[in-house]
Amino acid sequence: MARRRGFTLIELLVVVVVIGLLAMIALPKLGGTKARALSASIKADLHSLATAQEVYLSEWATYSTDTAQLAFHASSGVQLTIVDATANGWSATATHPAAIPSTCAMFIGSIAPAEPATSAGIIACQ
Predict the structure, then answer these.
(1) For 2, 13, 75, 86, which has the most beta carbons within 10 A of its beta carbon?
(2) What ranges in 61-77 are assigned the alpha helix state H?
(3) Domain for residue 6, yes or no?
């Protein structure tokens, strides 16, 4: 009788179960990674906004509340709002529904800070 080479059904089933267990362990960790990456995009957008505001200030001697005037475009899914802007400073908030933390704020100059920002030039998140 000739002996056949290959895997048995039990061996294949064990491999599939092991792969399934590894996937169950890895998927929740990947979800947290995506949320932290989205939070990083919020912070990057606020840094980019600060640069755009400084360029606008050098040309017009005031800050702007309009992102179109600043030629600034937020990342996909990020909702950025310039709360207030004068010749003395500006404040803004940025949110993304899937980010952890989901809301960050920043302000520059002598202007009322947007929550949760407390120190000028420092991005704060909640």
Answers:
(1) 75
(2) 67-70
(3) no
